[in-house]
Amino acid sequence: MSVGEYCNREVTVCSPDTSISEAARLMRQTHVGDLIVIEETGPGNRPIGIVTDRDLVIEVLALDIDPDVLTVGDIMSTQPVTAHENEDMLGVLARMRRAGVRRVPVVDEEDVLIGLITLDDMLELFHEGLDDMMWLIRNEIEHEQQERPD
Predict the structure, then answer these.
(1) How far apart are alpha carbons 10 and 81 in whole angstroms?
(2) d(CA 141, CA 43)
(3) Could you tell me if residue 125 is inside a domain?
(4) Fewer Cβ close by (within 10 Å): the C or N end of the chain?
(5) Does residue 23 lie in a domain region?
(6) Cα–Cα dist 139/131, whole Å
(7) Which pLDDT does position 127 carry in this prediction?
(8) For residue 137, what pLDDT is reported?
(9) What are the average pLDDT values for consecutive 10-residue runs of the chain, which has 150 residues?
(10) Residue 44: left (phi > 0), alpha (psi -120 to 50), or beta?
C-alpha cells in the first residue's frame, strides 16, 4: 500500500507570511487542525513547514501574544517529515513514530505537495484491513463447519 493511494488530496495550505489570525480563520473555515506551509515553485507547491492548532495555542495564545503581530513563518515547524507518494504505508508510519509526528505531507518525485497522510487516516485504513481479515476467519470457520459437520 503506497501513501499516494490513500492520502487526502484536499490539503489546506498557506504561505509563511500568513498572519496567525488568518491561519486560525482558515483552519476554522476548512475544519482542519493543521496547515501545510508552502513555497510556490515552478513545478508546484513545495511543503516547507507545518503549523497546527496546538502550535497556535502553545506559541501564541498561552503566551498572550497578539496573533496579528506574528506570522505562520514565526511559529511553524520547519523541514517537515515528508513521504513520497510511492512509499510504503508501514515505512512512513515507522518514520512518523520516530519523528513523533501525526501528519505527513505527501510529495511527488519533484517534491511537490500532492496530499497529506495522518495517523487517523492510517488507523482507519488498518482497521478496515483488520475487519476484512476477521470476516475471512469467520467465513473460513463457517465453511469448515458446513463441510465437516459433527
Answers:
(1) 19
(2) 53
(3) no
(4) C
(5) yes
(6) 12
(7) 67
(8) 74
(9) 92 97 97 96 94 96 93 96 95 94 96 95 77 74 73
(10) left
Distances (CA, A) of 75 to 7, 79, 102: 25, 13, 18
Alpha-carbon distances of 150 from 137, 138, 141, rounded to whole Å: 20, 18, 14
Which domain does 80 fall in, by range?
Answer: 3-118
Q: Could you identify the residue written with the cell 497556535? A: 56
Give the DSSP H/E element, type plus range, for residue 4.
helix 3-6
Q: Are strands 83-84 and 103-107 parallel, antiparallel or unpaired?
A: parallel
What residues does 39 pair with on adjacent strands? 46
Vertex 93, ends 105 and 79: CA angle to 5°?
A: 35
Do the beta carbons of residue 10 and residue 30 sit within 8 Å?
no
Separation in Å, CA 15 to CA 26, 50, 81, 104: 12, 10, 18, 17
* pLDDT of res. 55: 96
Domain tally, the chain: 1
Q: What pLDDT is recorded for position 129?
A: 64
Q: Kindly state whether residue 140 falls inside one of the protein's structural domains.
A: no
Judge whether 118 and 52 are in contact, CB under 8 Å: no
The pTM of the full predicted model, rounded to 2 decimals, is: 0.82
- The answer as to whether 92 is a domain residue is yes
